[in-house]
Write a structure and sequence with these properties.
Elements lengths: L3 H13 L18 H7 L25 H7 L6 H14 L2 H11 L1
Length: about 110
Amino acid sequence: MVDLRDLCEVHIRSSATRQVATVSFSARLMYRSSHPTFGEAFPERAASLTGVPSDLVNAPLFTIDNSLTEEKLRMKFTSVEETVIDIAKWLIASGVEEVWAAVGKRY
């Protein structure tokens, strides 16, 4: 999981930094269940979470070392936990529960 805001920052910083313009940079990439993070931040909503899909329960965790990116571009990537919480806050503020309820009634 990579925060889109971080990808934008990598793009802008690498484009604007002359000495690193020809270097390829990697961003953090991983899959991990966000259920514990979401449940801790929104305990009143945790019961509504579905389980992790069975094909992902034992999925391998892939990580990419992005320390060179952070060092050369002088930046720090957003944690997976912070990204999940920000997405959840945005979805709640955007009324996703009402939309999801309407979808449920339709099908």
